[in-house]
Structure formats: structure tokens, C-alpha cells
């Protein structure tokens, strides 16, 4: 199943995460913290710390690197 970049993929959507993981973990975290395309910074939850966002990205991306 192909998902638009404006829709966050579910952790079980392995093909989409494999493509995103190729960008590198640091890029994924930066996009999550700063916002990217239609995604708001910190997923629309500005009270989250950078570490909390990083941990969420780690979980979502199936822990490819940390």
C-alpha cells in the first residue's frame, strides 16, 4: 500500500518505512521536530521534548538506528 507523504505511515507499513529509513535516522528526527511538508512540528504537540520526538520516531521506524 502506497501512502502519501502527508500521511504518517503506521509502524506496520514496512515498505514505506524502508523508504524513509534510507534517509537516515537523524533526517527523520529533524523532520519530525521541525515539521516537513504537511506535517506540523513535533506532530502538532509543541510540549514534547526533542527526546520524546526522537523516541517516537525510533518506535515508528522500527528502531533502525538511534
TrEMBL record:
InterPro entries in the cross-refs: Cyt_c-like_dom_sf (IPR036909)
Source taxon at top rank: Bacteria
Name of the protein described by the UniProt record: Cytochrome c domain-containing protein
Protein's organism: Massilia genomosp. 1
Amino acid at each position: 500500500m502506497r501512502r502519501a507523504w502527508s500521511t504518517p505511515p503506521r509502524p506496520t507499513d514496512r515498505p514505506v518505512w524502508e523508504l524513509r529509513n534510507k534517509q537516515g535516522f537523524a533526517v527523520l528526527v529533524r523532520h519530525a521536530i521541525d515539521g516537513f511538508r504537511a506535517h506540523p512540528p513535533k506532530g502538532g504537540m509543541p510540549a514534547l521534548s526533542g527526546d520524546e520526538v526522537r523516541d517516537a520516531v525510533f518506535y515508528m521506524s522500527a528502531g533502525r538506528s538511534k
